[in-house]
Specification:
It is found in: Membrane. Pfam families: MFS_1. It comes from Ectopseudomonas hydrolytica. By secondary structure, the protein is mostly helical. The protein folds into 2 domains: 201 residues, MFS general substrate transporter like domains (Growth Hormone, Chain: A), CATH 1.20.1250; 210 residues, Growth Hormone, Chain: A, CATH 1.20.1250.20. It is built from 16 helices and no strands. The chain starts with a helix and ends with a helix.
Length: 415
Amino acid sequence: MTKPRLFGLQLLFGWMNLVLAVPSIYLMFGMPLVMRQHGWSGTEIGLFQLAALPAIFKFLFAVPVQRVRLGRGHFVHWLLLLSALLLALYWLIGRHNLIGDRVMLFALTFAISIAATWADIPLNALAVQWLPRSEQLRAGSIRSAALFLGAIVGGGAMIVVQSRLGWQAPFWLMGGGLLIGALPFLLLRAQAALPEQTASGDAPAPGVMADWAGFFNQPGARQWTLLLLTSFPFIGAVWLYLKPLMLDMGMPLEHVAFIVGIVGGMTGALFSLLGGRLAPILGTARAIALYLLAALCALALLTLTVWAELGPTWLIASAICVAASMGAVSALMFGLTMFFTRRQRNASDYGLQTTVFTVARLAVPIAAGVLLDRLGYTGMLLVLTLGVLLSFVLAWRVRGKVERSAQSILDGERV
């Protein structure tokens, strides 16, 4: 495959990951500001976050995508079908201002969460299918960067658009972005020069449990799953609590929003791209260890800054370090997720891994909130830093096995 075509595919997959991330971020992380302005209680805003629950069940959504074939090129057809459903939901939620209709707003947000979560499965199954293994670490870094940019767009820019242009405008923009990304898949599907792998359709279909067992029976898959469970959630939880931490330490709201929301998001996106670029040069084993060591140092610096009350300059520097290390770690995690996704089981393996990742990513912040109430910021940060230390020790022990498995997958494709 030529370099221009690879670049175009990477750009297309990155764009689609961005436009699928923005609606959930906007509705569940940006919208609470508007809700509060319109009299929603804290309990109502908290319960509204339950609309994110479909992400936990991605492994179940992957089953029909893997098994129900919608003709030749069924992953493309699944993606287009779910994109059409998402467009219809944008039209429904954008017809009238629903900020005062709590039940309807929650129901449509929940439906959008299902459609966007579901569409992510055929999209990234296609990335595994169409991109060479040598390009998949880069694809993971682009996806990570897209999620950081999605946080900026969904959590900030769309709120500004709504306040200036009205309730409908963000949904029109999100729908337009989705159309721009989805339509090229029709052209790609029609090109014989970019055939879809047919191994998944030719192979006999085992049971769902056999599919999942087959994933864990891959060489290195168990070690990789342990890394997937531990590498990101602790630093991700720190990022979640950075805004309230900085507010409670006396930093103005506007400064916090700019530092964490804009500068931090851009830093995370930049280091996602750099992390994906450096990983093949460093080697998987070395990259795993170095990126987690960077995360450990960033959290240790932040913990020391809060404990010693070193002031706003050190706090800002620590936050930027957390963003940078989080970007590099997430890029590596997304890239290796693609490596451990078997081409014959693209959707089911991807859905299983992202469910494991999501459960850990949601569980650790809940535990961190309990720690915050009991131990304060210093105690919470110390425990989360120890969690990253545990992940680093684990990564040090299994990094060789994971690298050998990833290399054997890459060598197998070359053969």
